[in-house]
Write a structure and sequence with these properties.
By secondary structure, this protein is mainly α. The protein contains 18 helices and six strands. The relative contact order is 0.12. Bound molecules: carboxymethyl coenzyme *A.
Length: about 425
């Protein structure tokens, strides 16, 4: 017999089904709660306890620091796979065989160009506009170039084309945003290069000369993209699913995901970490002083790159990135004092009661910025790189939501505003 839970509410006892996931995670199914309880709803601000969906894409266990894409441990994927293979896995649920993979990569390669008018959009942005804002609006504007994507009931082949276009055009748009911000001419995609090398060439090259992309850097970049590729129902992914659930076009849903990722509590933390480390360095490098600020409840400062809603022991992505950070800096012969400050902060935090009690550990954003800096990316582009990595996850989650024909995402509320009152003319108001 399947497990159930009991809830006594409004003087009646309700039996609630328990949904058990494939990793034995338990969820109390409250989908009939309002109907069966005479109107009671649940309240969980910030969704700290609320599952918004079942999902077969990514599993993470925050207590044990486990992260798996479609069952494959992140450590194995980072070691053996490539970003495009992981993208295929997330979107299709299985690793591709040779034929499937070469079809997938060649279709992506064929769609790397973007409409020339995209350059005119880029020219119109003020010089100081943040690349995340530009990326979000460029992705949304793709719907204008591909109006057939507006039809939520189009066939699977058409949907696949939109997915391929997104994956193919994202590196081009990201690089062009940077080029325009520098006043440099854009570099066109080179379809003889692999995904990551092509991206680095467009980003760091010039039309007059390409760059010799260091394989060490290309490999580190590929690993970083894999590590960011999906993370179940986080803020931006939940946003993508909710926006997509209204049957807005996929481009609009992904654009909304980029906007959600932008904030410093989410993907924007990677930019904020480097800015924080630079501030600490400029302030004389007194790590303890900044740790005290982070603990002071009257100070809005938080230790950026620390803490996570789900990970309460360690973030496996942070461990892998820290290792990669050491390797990249060593291979490039770079000594970055910011890395020393970061390590010192981590050392202090891991022994500090405040951080121990609240289970705050370095997250994916704590060390990634140091690698991006070593590669030569400007700080404002870091969150855009996170978006580049997260794209296949957003697509996969959107596809799952659409395939399962999930209803529109529309939470309830408990109203706490004024009761009914009568309108008064403005002249009589005090
Ligand atoms: N520095 C200092 N105190 C912190 C921090 C921090 N980075 N993070 C959480 N706390 C404290 C917080 O003040 C609260 O203390 P108290 O219980 O005394 O009020 C307690 O820890 C719980 O924090 P919370 O904000 O209720 O936890 P949350 O699950 O709502 O927030 C978080 C998670 C990631 C938004 C938060 O830890 C944070 O703001 N971290 C810094 C930003 C950051 O690094 N974000 C990247 C997250 S990983 C990348 C991704 O988004 O996927």
């Amino acid at each position: 017999m399947s497990e159930t839970g009991k809830l006594i509410v409004g003087g009646q006892e309700l039996e609630l089904p328990i949904i058990t996931g494939s990793e034995n995670e338990k969820g109390i199914d409250i989908s009939k709660l309002r109907a069966n309880s005479g109107g009671y709803t649940t309240l969980d601000i910030g969704f700290k306890n609320t599952g918004s969906t079942t999902s077969g894409i990514t599993f993470l266990n925050g207590e044990q620091g486990i992260l798996r894409y479609a069952g494959y441990p992140i450590e194995q994927l980072v070691e053996n796979s490539s970003f495009l293979e992981v993208a295929y896995l997330l979107i299709n649920g299985e690793l591709p065989n040779q034929g499937q993979f070469s079809d997938f990569t060649s279709s992506i390669t064929q769609h790397t160009l973007v409409h020339e008018d995209i350059k005119r959009f880029l020219d119109a942005y003020p010089e100081r506009s943040h690349p995340m804002g530009q990326l979000s609006s460029l992705i949304c504007s793709l719907a204008a170039f591909y109006p057939e994507s507006l039809d939520p009931h189009r066939g699977a082949e058409e949907v696949d084309k939109t997915i391929v276009r997104l994956l193919a055009k994202m590196p081009t748009m990201v690089s062009w945003i940077y080029k325009r911000s520098m006043g440099h001419p854009v570099v066109y995609p080179n379809n003889s290069m692999d995904y990551v090398t092509n991206f680095l060439n467009m980003f760091f090259g010039l039309p007059t000369q390409g760059v010799d992309v260091d394989p060490v850097i290309a490999s580190a970049m590929d690993k970083l993209l894999i590590l960011h590729a999906d993370h179940e129902q986080n803020c931006s992914t939940a946003t993508v699913r909710v926006v997509g659930s209204s049957h807005a076009p996929l481009y609009a849903a992904i654009s909304a995901g980029v906007s959600a990722l932008w904030g410093p509590r989410h993907g924007g933390a990677n930019q904020a970490v480097i800015e924080m480390l630079k501030n600490i360095q400029a302030d004389g490098g007194d790590s303890q002083k900044w740790m005290d600020k982070a603990k002071d409840k009257n100070d809005p400062f938080r230790l950026m790159g620390f803490g996570h809603r789900v990970y309460k022991n360690f973030d496996p992505r942070a461990l892998l990135i820290k290792k990669s950070c050491d390797e990249v800096l060593e291979k490039l012969g770079i000594h970055d004092p910011l890395l020393e400050i970061a390590k010192k902060l981590e050392e202090i935090a891991l022994k500090d009661d405040y951080f121990i009690q609240r289970k705050l550990y370095p997250n994916v954003d704590f060390y990634s910025g140091i690698i991006y800096k070593a590669i030569g990316f400007p700080t404002e582009m870091y969150t855009v790189l996170f978006a580049l990595g997260r794209l296949p996850g957003w697509i996969a989650q959107w596809k799952e939501m659409m395939t399962e024909r999930q209803p529109i995402g529309r939470p309830r509320q408990v109203y706490v505003g004024p009761n009914e009152r009568q309108y008064t003319p403005i002249k009589t108001r005090v």
